[in-house]
Amino acid sequence: MRIAIFSDIHGKILLPFKLVDLYQKETGNKIDFILQCGDMGAYPNIENLDKATIKHAQYDRDELGFHDDFTKTNHEIQSFLDELNINMICVRGNHEDHDFLDNLEKESSDKSIFPIDVYERVFVCRSGLEQKLETEDEVLNFVGIGRIGDRKGRTENRFIQDYERKEIKKLLKTKHSFDILLTHDKDDSQSGYGMTEIREVLDNVIFHYHFYGHTGEPFKQETDFNGITQSIKVNELEFNESGILEKGCMIILTKENGELSIEIVDQKLTNKMTKFNWKDQKNFVKKI
């Protein structure tokens, strides 16, 4: 089983799928799922953009990619996604239309993940619930925790909600380990910011890997304070001033014979997908 992991895509919903397609063609290695660490930029209605997204969208239309490409059917995109046949499972970030996501989550209260796009290829997982990805040969267990924490007692819906805290409390009682903890925020108690619930989970439940985004830091890998979990900051999926993606924006997690390993995708591969060519339809549509 191979999983591609991304973070902070900010409206470029199609880009992870295109990078996975490129990776498969360049390496011959099949990807089974995509996991995404939040800040999808899931804004179906432009009227509900937050201030930061409005600011960035003024000079970069990619910020509105969910609205433009994933709320109404584009038959070329649909054909590409159908042929690729891979789903992306996300946690919420802080730059999302949470009213939109809250309504979808309530409508899907009996499910641990729910689709948010017209193609039903982009899913959001409910915070604190045990999740399972399966192929013919392997099973990968993970938990997602979305939104961000707050040390000031604010309750607006970009911050973790009480019902999610209740699910996390249940998780703390589990007796088994997980392959992955997937979050948007992190906990950094020493600096006084982040989500305290993440620290509590990492101190009480065994995870082999913790992937997160949000902080604005570059890619880094280190052992968590618990001495067990490998903590990985996934770099934002943003093009730099030269129009290329930074190191550590695409991670491949492999589970084979029950063993986990990661690959930091080389920039020689990701550099082929630039700010100036990634939306070129020739890259993902087969001409008939």
TrEMBL record:
It comes from the Bacteria. Pfam families: Metallophos. Residues 1-216 form the Calcineurin-like phosphoesterase domain. This is Calcineurin-like phosphoesterase domain-containing protein. It comes from Chryseobacterium ginsengisoli.
